[in-house]
Amino acid sequence: MRRAQDGDQPAYRLVMRAMLPAIRNMARRRIPDDELVEDVIQDTLLTIHRLRHTYDPARPLLPWIAAITSARSIDALRRSGRARRFEVTDDEAMVAAVDPGIADPGEALANDREVARLLGLLPERQRMMVEMVKLQEMTLDDAARVSRLSVSAVKSLLHRAFARLREDGNS
């Protein structure tokens, strides 16, 4: 991928061909519809093409590809409205499937308070980005558009926010 970033076309074609099976497998794990899987593969390849300059060659390639594939899969399910088609609607099945290890409402409230406390530690713009991208599950593009920032600025704010939250968690 590093050579592809430097403009080596044969290396670019090779890396794109090599990542195709991994992208297909990742998409199939999230999406049971073969037609939608193919759409996600194409969208993922286009996204990788557009964002290849953001890949850091010092880091493993597969997690970067997995993150893009996951985001494109979720976006495709949302756009198509097919996400609802795969939801469980049988109340008895839902009750039977409840994990006894899941937190009780009191514990959930405590978790909500902890999230609110941690978000309160962040400067306003960092907090807004965390809320939009992680809590509201907006894409980076959507968060950038809503906040009138560039995608790279959104990424930078998120990076600084998580670094600050890690520091707080370690102290």
Structure write-up:
- This protein has helices at residues 2-5, 9-30, 34-51, 61-80, 91-96, 105-120, 124-135, 140-147, 151-170.
- By secondary structure, it is mostly helical.
- It folds into two domains: 2-86, Rna Polymerase Sigma Factor, Chain: A (Orthogonal Bundle); 105-170, Winged helix-like DNA-binding domain superfamily/Winged helix DNA-binding domain (Arc Repressor Mutant, subunit A, Orthogonal Bundle), CATH 1.10.10.10.
- The radius of gyration is 19 Å and the shape is globular.
Count of all domains: 2
Summarize the helix and strand pattern as letters. Answer: HHHHHHHHH
Protein structure class: mainly alpha
Mean pLDDT: 80
Tags for this model:
171 residues; Rna Polymerase Sigma Factor, Chain: A; mainly alpha; Arc Repressor Mutant, subunit A
Write a compact overview of the structure shown:
This protein is mainly alpha-helical and 171 residues long. It has two domains: 2-86, RNA polymerase sigma factor, region 2, helix turn helix motif (Rna Polymerase Sigma Factor, Chain: A, Orthogonal Bundle), CATH 1.10.1740.10; 105-170, Winged helix-like DNA-binding domain superfamily/Winged helix DNA-binding domain (Arc Repressor Mutant, subunit A, Orthogonal Bundle).
